Amino acid sequence: TGYLLFSGNVLAGICFFLLSLNGFISSNLAMGFCPTRCDCQHSQHLMCTNRGLRTVPKLAALIPEDVRIFSLGGNFISNISAFDFTRYSNLERLNLQYNQIRIIHPKAFEKLSTLEELYLGHNLLTAIPAGSLQPLNKLTILYGNNNAIKKITPELFSNLDNLIKLRLDGNSIEVLEDSVFKSLINLHYLHLESNKVQHIHRNAFSKLTNLRFLNLAHNMQSAVRNVFTFSQLRALTTLLLSENEIRYIGNHVFQNLKKLSKLSLSNNKISRMDSGALRGLSSLTELLIDGNELVEIPAGLLDPLERIEEMDFSRNRISNVDSLAFSRLKYLRVLKLKNNFLTSLSGDMFALNNALYNLDLQGNNWTCDCRLEDLRKWIAAAHSQGKLLTVFVQCHYPATLRGKYLDYVNSSQLQPLGNWTHLCRSQIGPEESRGGAVLVKVGGPERGMGAAEKPEGGERSGEDGQVEKGQPRPAAEAAGKPSTRLTTTVSNRSGEQLDLLRSDQDDALPVITDPCVFNRHFITNVSVDQVTSSTVTVFWTTRDHHRYTPGPGPGLDEVHYRVLFDRFGTQDRFPRYVYARGAARSVTLRELSSDVTYMVCVEGVVGGSVCQVAPRDHCVGLVTLPEGNGGGAVLTSDLQLVTVATLAGNAALLLVIGVVWLGRSLRRRLQRRKSAVHVRHMYSTRRPFRTTMATASVSTDFTSYQSSRPARLAPLEEGDLIEFPCDRFLDSSSVRRDSEMQRFSD
């Protein structure tokens, strides 16, 4: 057995030595064959990048067979000869990017039968010799981008049936010939952007049945009209046609692209699209057609886009959008119509787009009149339900509203202009534009209708979509007397509509001053009191504003106030308003939800108008009481009693703890005192020494100790204790001593 073990160890040592020697020899061989100026620290990678080389380095002998990567990028190589790569038969990646290559010999890559990646980008090639790539039957990636190639032929790509990605962008290709890519049956990605392509043969992309990505941006195409151009690209998911000169999109040109998910037509000159131009794009999710010259979006054009989620029509000349243009796009989430020539949009245009949350309407010349009333209501309703990001519709006309945003404009200001009266359903009366509170003029020849009120005998819609029949009219109104009333309706969680405040007023509200200035300078001391589980009273004070109001004889009756209250910190928000008469400085909010946080703000209503900027300086928060509490005063007294009881209990507990601690402290002191007296009593020198009946050893110890003391000394005091040597009292038995010492050592 020993002989066998020895032999095995010897053999293992010999094997280890041979392997180390082989690795050392291979490393030395690799370092020995490394080209000048190159780095060969890794045996499979010859790194010659950025070394100032002007030709491919020459080798004096064969290189190791395990070399797989040869990097020659960033040099000044201008010519690739037939013998430069003959010794690299096992090469898998060859990088020649960022050189000055102008000429490639047709047989330069003849020995590279295992090559999988070839990078020729950013050189000065005007053409790749036909047949030069034919030996590369395992090639999967070919980069020929950013050269000066003017023409490509089908022979150039023959035998490259394993190619997956081809980049020819940044060249000067003008024409894509018939079946030019017919050999690339497994091609997935094709980059042809930034060329000069003007003409694409109807069969240029034939056989590319596996192509997924096609980029034809930044070319010179003028139209897309041939239905056969993209007909065989059935697996295509992304098609980029931006930055061309396309003016026209014909019918059915994309009809076979059933899997296409993104189509970009941005920054062209498209002014017309046939009604069936987008037919067949049932899987499209993103359509970019911004930066063109479209003037309208007709009905039916976008209907084939069943799965569309994002559309961008920005920077066109669109002045008309049909009210049914987006009616079938139930998955639409993002719609951009900014920087067009829109002046008005139908109010019910987006009623069926329930998934829409991002609507960009900036940069249009909006005319804020009665035609935008329904759009304003839709925006307010979508905002209140948290379904829409902020939409900026900034008025351009009339001049009195220029610069103001639609959602902060009153309905009284949305009047028909010129001869457009027939486009409005009725003359719009004074109405607040935000939330569910409405200022309604009743009994006159005209009546304004808000988001929460319809004409008499009609229906009213609550927060959760519940409908309530019209309520009976007041007696004054039934008698035919004109009156103006402030009505606020809200809905509770179950959808029941509640009337919070109703007050009659005899005089109209003339416009007297800017409400923003009034809020900032005259409203002060906003507070809440008498909070219960369902009600709260809001108080505020105002400064005298008579002398600051323009016009003759202004008074307090010309300014009114409203209180905004909304659930704070919850996902579903729905702002409500309660209006107060001009002289009132308090409002009681009712039918609130118990144990809910509310934000309450006070702002002025000046001439039926409110400030464009939401109030922030005059707000206060509150939390309603839990269900079942009697009132604020009772709750306050209960809290006081609980506080006093708690303090009294804490004081009693502290007293008990102090007494217990003091007793224990005294007990410990007494015990220490008793134990000290006992020790003195036992060992005091005033007691007589033991008699002769004691053992000899003990009497000897005592005698020896006493005989050493001088006789002339005074008697020992009570506190003088005898010291006993410890070893005198240890058992002479060695077994016990060892066990005791072992115990302490443990």
UniProtKB/TrEMBL annotation:
Domain Fibronectin type-III: 522-628
Domain of life assignment: Eukaryota
Record keywords: Disulfide bond, Leucine-rich repeat, Membrane, Repeat, Signal, Transmembrane, Transmembrane helix
Ranges of compositional bias, category Basic and acidic residues: 453-471
Tagged with keyword Zinc: no
Coiled coil: none
CDD domains, per database record: FN3
Stretches that traverse the bilayer: 641-663
Protein name (record): TLR4 interactor with leucine rich repeats
Source organism (scientific name): Amphilophus citrinellus (Midas cichlid)
Lineage: Eukaryota, Metazoa, Chordata, Craniata, Vertebrata
